[in-house]
Amino acid sequence: MAKGNNKLAIIATQGTLDWAYPPFILATAAGAMGWDVGIFFTFYGLPLLKKDLSASISPASNPAMPMRMPFGPAAFQKINWPIPNIISSNIPGFESMATSLMKQTFKNKGVASVEELREMAIDLDVRLIACQMTMDVFGFAKEEFIDEVEIAGAAAFLEFASDANISLFV
Amino acid sequence: MAEITVTKTLDCTGMLCPMPVVKTAKAMKELSIGDILEMISTDPGSMPDMNAWANQTKHELVEALDEGGKFRFKIKKTH
């Protein structure tokens, strides 16, 4: 990378399908512009580094999440179905249904999957850094993660981020 | 003005952010200096995004057309 490049440092702390998008979208867009990019995955962001990526969403306690159907006539697809927490948190299979609806909506609209974005990030030399401490706490082994992952602690990430133009906590 | 000779065309129709810029960046890597990449997209955000991308990467955006829901960019590889 050329000297004087812009640099983006992101901390990804959430592993749900909806929250998986912002870090990977920003990282790939920055990588496409030739920036140096690193994402530090900690706490619930760690599962996004797993070989078998299975991010899902939870409409429970996500009151602003629009619930729309990815099929049917346009007017039907525009309807927002308000789902009370008592339903979304108690009905078995509700989360997996909501997850597949969101995945289908993303696909219909032309949004890349999280898996595709992660592959593109790797292709663009985005550094994927796993937090050693939270790996130990939550029992993640390096072998569970894709090969491109680096493992480091807070000090190492802060050193990387120290000369970043943009630092984001997601 | 002389017609711009396109070296390669990249069709990003139907793709949303950040795919058009990511695909453009990838396609540019495979071209030589002076080549022109034509990129076609339907992402409404691609007009500001492609301007920003060209500013950041220092490639030359020689043409950016809004054809009503369809965008056509011509980018010259400068380095």
Q: Quote the beta fraction of chain A.
A: 5-15%
Spatial strand sequence of the major β-sheet of chain B: 1-2-4-3
**Terminal-residue CA separation of chain B:** 24 Å
- Rg of chain B, alpha carbons: 11 Å
Q: What spatial form of chain A do the alpha-carbon principal axes imply?
A: globular
Briefly, what CATH class of the domain at 7-54 and 113-169 in chain A?
Alpha Beta
Structural class by sheet pairing and helices of chain B: alpha+beta
Radius of gyration of chain A: 18 Å
Biggest β-sheet of chain A: count, sense, barrel? 5 strands, parallel
Oligomer kind:
heterodimer
Major beta-sheet overview of chain B: 4 strands, mixed
Runs of chain A with pLDDT <50, length 5+? none
Instruction: Compute the number of structural domains of chain B.
Output: 1
Q: How many angstroms separate the termini of chain A?
A: 25 Å
Describe this structure in words.
The complex is a heterodimer of chains A (170) and B (79). Chain A has helices at residues 17-32, 74-77, 85-88, 94-109, 114-123, 132-138, 154-161; strands at residues 7-12, 36-41, 127-131, 150-152, 166-169. With 170 residues, chain A is an alpha/beta fold. Chain A has a domain at 7-54 and 113-169: DsrEFH-like (Hypothetical Protein Ychn, Chain: A), CATH 3.40.1260.10. In chain A, strand 3, helix 6 (132-138) and strand 4 (150-152) form a beta-alpha-beta unit. In chain A, helix 1 packs parallel to helix 5. The two termini of chain A are 25 Å apart. Chain B starts with 7 loop residues before the first strand and ends with a strand. In chain B, strand 3 and strand 4 form a beta hairpin. Chain B has helices at 19-29, 46-57; strands at residues 8-12, 36-41, 60-66, 71-76. In chain B, strands 1-2-4-3 form a 4-stranded mixed β-sheet, with helices on one face. By secondary structure, chain B is of the alpha+beta class. Chain B has a single domain, classed as Translation Initiation Factor IF3, CATH 3.30.110.40. At the A-B interface, helix 1 and helix 5 of A face helix 1 and helix 2 of B.
